[in-house]
Amino acid sequence: MIPTLLVLAAVAAWCWPHLQPLAEKAKAAAAKLTPRHYAGIALVAAAVAYGLGPSASPAPGPTPAPDAGTFSLAGLFAGETASEDAALIGAMCSELADEIEFSSGKPDGYLSTGIAVDELRKRTRILRCRGISIGDRQPAARDAIAKYLEDAVGTDGGPLTPEQRTAWVVAYRDLGRAATDAAK
Q1: DSSP labels, 88-155
Q2: Per residue in 25-83, pLDDT tens?
Q3: How does pLDDT run across 92-106, given as a tens digit for each residue?
């Protein structure tokens, strides 16, 4: 905001010779204003300030960052597609975390249940992998990921509380990091 104000001030100073006639006209018009005009201006200014202020319902706080290295998939991806599979899983998990976090402030109920989160995961896998099951190619990684998610977020498909939503985001971010690290 301050850089914007500095730019505006610089533009005003540079254009001042052209703005002086306008300033004189504004002074003349201000002399004709009545207390009613000032009250109207104050109401409009208050309405603008209110509209620019913070929203009535605060947005969810930032997602806590998982402890680096809390979960590892190193050595669980095998075969000639191991690195590619790990990188793909890492990208998908990171995107799922972003989607869940994005949906947290939406009033329309987008991703409001555990079932909806799992359905998003399934659709993401189907669309991104085009029917290929990385879990079939990488059973050790699949099993470790499934156990990690069950331990981290459970199996409840019901409505998500803010704490549960945060747990999903943290879990998918940790999985994304672990899979990306395993791809290296």
Answers
A1: HHHHHHHHHHHHHHHHTT-TT-TT-BHHHHHHHHHHHHHHHHTT--HHHH-HHHHHHHHHHHHHHH-S
A2: 767 776 777 777 666 676 666 666 666 665 555 555 544 544 544 788 989 999 999 99
A3: 999 999 988 888 766
Rounding to the nearest 10 degrees, give the CA dihedral for residues 44, 48, 53, 58.
100
What is the model's pTM? 0.60
Q: Look at residue 68 in the predicted model and tell me its pLDDT.
A: 45
Can you give the pLDDT at residue 157? 82
User: Where are the domains positioned within the chain?
Assistant: 26-184
Residue 94 identity (one-letter amino acid): S
Nearest-angstrom CA–CA distance, 72 and 141: 10
CA dihedral 174, 177, 180, 184 (to 10 degrees): -120
Residues 63, 167: Cα–Cα separation, whole Å: 9
d(CA 175, CA 93): 6
Nearest to 183 by CA among 96, 97, 72: 72
Distance between CA atoms of residues 150 and 164, nearest Å:
12
How many residues are present in the chain? 184
What is the mean pLDDT of the segment spanning 166-184? 91
